[in-house]
């Protein structure tokens, strides 16, 4: 039998109608009704939804462990994400968020929030999975300058480490969790009073604009090598010498290019879908997944710029951080939104 989450301050009156006090002469005086509250109805959480939560927990746990061992060995140089406390903190943002949401879904708390988070995260993880497979196996086919784990390296020879393997497993578990979440969505009963419905088109429009801007930012490196100005000692003529920098999202070939296109398309598509998910907390879960991805990506770009002296934080990298904050604000707005008070009877 569905459990109902009601505001205890709301008076329980017959039929929900507003009572009226009668004064002398039998005339009824209007009484302002209590503000409307958004009631939440949650039914029995199906096993599939809890399975999606378990997969999210595993993905978050594996992703958190993947931060610490060797990621790749490129040109004989061992790379890992956590070379210090700040690096570890940045790398753990996404796995910890995934783990926490997964625990809530596994316990049956506001299940559609967790299911929405899982589905949106899976759509974004599919393209990233292809990019990681390229980095570990195909990047030596066409060697190029890359920034991996904050280090600028040439992919002339690449050997995979335990961190890469665990990271790929975490992404695969995220994709699997999303598929299970999609299957469980229609079987999960969770509804509310529709307080967010009037502003859903506005939320969707804002989310799409932010996601398109995020794709444009991802099309350029978040941390790049600045050009050098060389002065000819004989003539005094200054010449700008371009230095090959790291690869952006759509600059890698083959499997990585396909992954980049999938990621860019999924980012825009999910920005359209997330605000339309019902109930209100479902939209919160979808927007939260977008915000976590953008925030983790933006902070990784900032870490790369701070980590190496040869790299500088770019305008697209700073823009990506601003956009991540914007999507986070949309998620908070959807979470805190309440319907306005009903009109006063005269």
The tally of structural domains comes to 1
Give the helix level as a range of percent. Answer: 40-55%
Number of helical elements: 9
Radius of gyration in whole Å, from Cα?
A: 25 Å
Shape: globular
Class from secondary-structure proportions: alpha+beta
Terminal CA distance: 39 Å
- Major beta-sheet overview: 3 strands, antiparallel
Number of strands: 14
Could you name the key traits of this structure?
three-stranded antiparallel beta sheet, 52% helix, disordered C terminus, 346 residues, globular, alpha+beta, disordered N terminus, single chain
Overview of this protein structure:
The protein has one domain (39-241, 262-336). It contains nine helices and 14 strands. It has helices spanning 47-65, 85-91, 93-106, 111-138, 162-185, 200-218, 254-273, 280-307, 315-336, and strands at residues 3-5, 21-22, 28-29, 40-42, 72-74, 77-79, 145-148, 151-154, 158-160, 190-192, 223-224, 228-231, 238-241, 312-313. Strand 12 (228-231) and strand 13 (238-241) form a beta hairpin. Helix 1 runs antiparallel to helix 3 (93-106), helix 1 (47-65) crosses helix 4 (111-138) and helix 4 packs antiparallel against helix 5 (162-185). The longest helix has 28 residues, at 111-138. It is globular.
């Amino acid at each position: 039998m569905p459990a109902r989450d009601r505001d205890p301050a709301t008076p329980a009156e017959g039929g929900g109608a507003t009572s009226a006090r009668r004064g002398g002469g039998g005339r009824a005086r209007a009484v302002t009704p209590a503000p409307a509250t958004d009631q939440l109805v949650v039914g029995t959480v199906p096993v599939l939804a809890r399975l999606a939560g378990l997969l999210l927990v595993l993905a978050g746990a594996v992703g958190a462990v993947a931060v610490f061992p060797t990621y790749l060995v490129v040109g004989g140089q061992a790379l890992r994400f956590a070379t210090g406390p700040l690096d570890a903190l940045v790398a753990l943002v996404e796995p910890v968020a995934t783990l926490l949401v997964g625990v809530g879904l596994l316990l049956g708390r506001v299940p559609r929030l967790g299911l929405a988070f899982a589905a949106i995260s899976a759509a974004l993880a599919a393209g990233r999975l292809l990019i990681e497979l390229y980095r570990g196996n195909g990047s030596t086919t066409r060697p190029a300058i890359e920034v991996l784990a904050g280090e600028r390296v040439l992919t002339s020879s690449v050997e995979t480490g335990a961190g890469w393997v665990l990271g790929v497993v975490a992404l695969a578990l995220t994709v699997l969790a999303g598929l299970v979440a999609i299957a469980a969505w229609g079987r999960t009963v969770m509804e509310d009073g529709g307080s967010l419905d009037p502003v859903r088109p506005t939320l969707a429009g804002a989310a799409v604009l932010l996601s398109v801007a995020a794709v444009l930012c991802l099309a350029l490196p978040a941390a790049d090598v600045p050009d050098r100005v060389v002065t000819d000692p004989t003539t005094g003529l200054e010449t700008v010498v371009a230095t090959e920098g790291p690869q952006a999202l759509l600059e890698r070939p083959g499997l990585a290019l396909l992954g980049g296109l999938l990621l860019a398309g999924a980012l825009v598509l999910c920005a359209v879908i997330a605000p339309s998910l019902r109930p209100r907390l479902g939209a919160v879960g979808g927007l939260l997944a977008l915000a976590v991805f953008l925030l983790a990506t933006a902070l990784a770009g900032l870490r790369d710029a701070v980590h190496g002296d040869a790299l500088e934080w770019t305008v697209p990298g700073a823009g990506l951080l601003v956009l991540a904050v914007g999507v986070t604000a949309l998620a908070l707005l959807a979470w805190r939104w309440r319907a306005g008070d009903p009109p006063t009877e005269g």
